Amino acid sequence: MGCCQSQNSDSKANRAARWRSTGIVALRDAKLKTFPDEVFELERSVRTLDLTRNKLVEIPMEISKLINMQRLVLAENLIQRLPINLGKLQSLKVMTLDGNRISSLPDECKTSFGQLVRLERLSISENILTSLPETIGSLRNLLLLNVSKNKLKSLPESIGSCFSLEELQANDNIVEDLPASVCNLIHLKSLCLDNNHISQIPPNLLKDCKALQNISLHNNPITMDQFQQMEGFQDFEARRKKKFDKQIDSNVMIGSKGLDEGVDLR
Fold it and tell me: How far apart are CA 17 and CA 157, in angstroms?
């Protein structure tokens, strides 16, 4: 028994030493129900934490000790809520929380979600979010936001303050309309809103979002005629075709709807 305990201790010590050396803690498919305590003991050493496909129900408050962490990947767990001190992880650039049971994001004043000011990629699809906090507008470096497959009825007006945003995915929700502020997203290239309840989009969207190359609105009430009559449609169509031509020139494989990308609204 003593020998087995010694080997187990050595194994844990070796694992912790490896984590400290590389800065990468990867425990996918490890059947974890709680975070390993030794992870928090590493504190500033952790750069990436990947606990995908486990059975985690919550994220402990001790997560705030990992102040140098840049990538947090907790997809496909059973997480129901995020700790209110998550905003202290101000080095975080990538956060992936797809496939959990999260119903809301922290919005408290001093420790809000909006304090993750270096965040560049946020993916929280396949959860049960009913709204996004207004503080999300503080994420000025955000390039990708994926909130598909939730229960969102709307997007906050503050989304227009995510000035760096290039890709917004909000497929498979119950969104009825978009805030006018999305027209402020001058770097937006792709807007995906399939399977919602959208009957119209802000009239200046195509005119103001001059980087936009793809809009996907399949299975929404909005009609093709409405879309084509919007100011800026011709310029948008030219950008879309240019992107498609580049894909052909590069021999990139595309799906059967490639020619209709961003245009077929049925």
Answer: 46
pTM score, whole prediction = 0.89
Structural domain span for residue 210:
99-266
Q: Which residues contact 244 (CB under 8 A, 6 or more apart)?
A: 254, 258, 259, 261
Count of structural domains, the chain: 2
- On whether both 194 and 67 belong to a single domain, the answer is no
Answer yes or no: do 117 and 68 share one domain.
no
- Assess whether pLDDT exceeds 50 at residue 203: yes
Q: Stretch 212-222: mean pLDDT, rounded?
A: 95
In the sheet that holds 94-96, the strands lie side by side as: 24-26, 48-50, 71-73, 94-96, 121-123, 144-146, 167-169, 190-192, 214-216
The CB density around residue 14, as the number of other CB atoms within 10 Å, is: 10
CATH of residue 238's domain is: 3.80.10.10
Strands (DSSP E) contained in 55-158 are 71-73, 94-96, 121-123, 144-146
| Distance between CA atoms of residues 104 and 32, nearest Å | 23
Residue 11 pLDDT greater than 90, yes or no: no
CA pair distance 45, 43, nearest whole angstrom: 6
DSSP 28: T
User: Is 6 contained in some domain?
Assistant: no
Beta bridge partners, 48, equal: 24, 71
